[in-house]
Design a protein that fits this description.
Layout lengths: L5 E10 L5 E12 L2 E6 L10 E12 L1 E7 L14 H14 L4 H17 L2 E7 L4 H14 L2 E5 L1 E2 L13 H13 L6 E3 L2 E2 L7 H14 L3 E5 L3 H10 L6 H7 L9 E5 L5 H10 L2 E4 L1 H6 L7 H7 L3 E3 L11 H19 L8 H13 L16 E4 L12 H11 L5 E6 L2 E2 L2
Parallel strand pairs: 1-4, 5-6, 6-7, 7-9, 8-10, 11-12, 12-13, 13-14
Antiparallel strand pairs: 1-2, 2-3, 4-15, 15-16, 16-17
Helix pairs in contact: 2-3, 3-4, 4-5, 11-12
This protein binds guanine and fe (iii) ion.
Length: about 425
């Protein structure tokens, strides 16, 4: 494994549990066996013999983490953006997802998606596929070859969806899920159970999925409290539960011993936020999607204050841009609008907090990941920010701010995942 022992030199910048920006100018980041061995202002003697890759004067930061993205929706991003969630699903998302019954189309579409995210700033992603098992396995094979680390879900949906996409019964959906799981034998591409959201999953299906979750010990992802009409609908579908989040909990698919990500949570009330904190359910905050689909602005400050673990999601194609840098900027911007429009006392999210969410915050869903702390997986982006120079001196933190707001994939000079270089 010696090829995974090396040192990077450059301007280091990262965030950890402190949620503040840490920097070392002209510092050293050591990789041993694909894991960080720590950051150093000068190289310790014991690492002097390792191969040194000198990236100065570039910025070296942790790889970004996308906690919520729909692979099949990549194909139609930027279209249908005048609709709200339920109409957008019917008129845009479902018709496109229906095409993944065709493996030839799937190969073409997922090929474009995987190449795009491989070149982008995310090193880890939690992904929705479609209901189709074979197409989902094809996506997973492509992702495995990309070098990225991902979790991927075959979607379950057996009600309130068009005939061409709806699984015929809960039993068939569960059987297809078990069959798909048998095919999931990858090193860096992991299955995650993916009931689409409560409106598209019957009671029987949700209970069956909880059984599969226990049998295989799988993580779970879904959508929660994204849109007001949707929340009302779930109230009618699950009158026995105390709320939308409580309904997932009542199905045994909401945190506790089940690692869980819930996307959006725009309309979560105090009780739902407290339940997520108690059960350590991750929030995937998707501000661009919430803006495009007129869903609203999630109260991120309340989630953070309550101790809910959180990260960021592009939610392609509710969101148009897959870059989590863009999501960080959106997070800051919509939180300021929220404060101004609602005149709340909640403080807006600062850029350093958004940077934390898009790296270590989301990364912690994958284990030890998302910062340069010794022992973490070595997921690194090297950003060439020379085209963002100013006529005055910029600190490393200033440079990070500009990278967040102004960079694109052309600024990515190198990308490492678990100590492997992707490019
Ligand atoms: N809720 C259920 N399905 C979806 C989806 O595909 N995108 C978004 N944004 N919300 C959903
Ligand atoms: Fe989504």
């Amino acid at each position: 494994m010696t090829e995974k022992n090396f040192v990077l030199k450059g301007d280091l910048c990262w965030s950890d549990e402190s949620r503040s920006i840490q920097t070392i100018s002209d510092g050293y980041l050591v990789c041993i066996d694909g894991k960080s061995a720590g950051v150093f202002p000068s190289l310790p003697e014991c690492y002097a013999g390792l191969r040194l890759v000198d990236y100065s004067p570039y910025l070296i930061i942790p790889g970004l983490v996308d906690l919520h993205i729909h692979a099949p929706q990549f194909a139609f991003r930027g279209l249908g953006m005048d609709l709200q969630l339920l109409d957008w699903l019917e008129r845009r998302a479902f018709p496109e997802e229906g095409k993944y019954a065709n493996l030839e189309y799937t190969r073409k579409a997922y090929g474009l998606f995987v190449e795009h995210i491989r070149r982008g700033p995310s090193t880890r992603l939690v992904i929705y596929a479609t209901v189709h098992s074979e197409a989902t396995l094809l996506l997973m094979e492509m992702l495995e070859k990309s070098g990225l680390v991902t979790m991927v879900g075959k979607i379950n949906m057996d009600r309130n969806s068009p005939d061409y996409l709806r699984e015929e019964s809960a039993a068939l959906s569960l059987a297809a899920t078990e069959k798909w799981l048998k095919g999931c034998n990858f090193k860096n591409t992991f299955p995650i159970l993916t009931p689409r959201f409560i409106p598209s999953c019957s009671d029987e299906l949700m209970r069956g999925l909880a059984g599969i979750q226990k049998k295989f010990g799988l993580p779970v992802q879904s959508h929660l409290s994204e849109n007001q009409q949707e929340v009302e609908w779930v109230g009618k579908l699950c009158p026995q539960s105390a709320g939308y989040g409580a309904a997932y909990r009542d199905y045994d698919l909401f945190g506790g011993s089940v690692p869980t990500i819930m996307a959006h949570c725009v309309w979560s009330d105090k009780e739902e936020i407290a339940l997520m904190a108690e059960r350590q359910v991750f929030l995937a905050h998707c501000p661009q999607s919430n803006t495009n689909l007129s869903s609203g602005i999630a109260p991120v400050r309340r989630f953070l204050d309550a101790g809910v673990p959180a990260g960021l999601g592009s939610d392609i194609a509710g969101g148009v841009h897959d870059s989590i840098f863009r999501t960080m900027a959106d997070t800051v911007q919509v939180s300021k609008l929220r404060q101004t429009l609602l005149k709340t006392a909640e403080k807006p999210i600062k850029l350093e907090e958004a940077f934390y969410l898009g790296t270590a915050g989301g990364g912690s869903f994958f284990g030890k990941c998302g910062s340069f702390t010794a022992g973490n997986d070595f997921d690194v982006l090297v950003m060439d920010d020379r085209n963002l120079a100013a006529p005055f001196e910029l600190s490393i933190q200033d440079r990070l701010d500009r990278v967040v707001y102004l960079s694109d994939e052309r600024n990515i000079r190198a990308k490492y995942v678990k100590g492997n270089i992707l490019f």
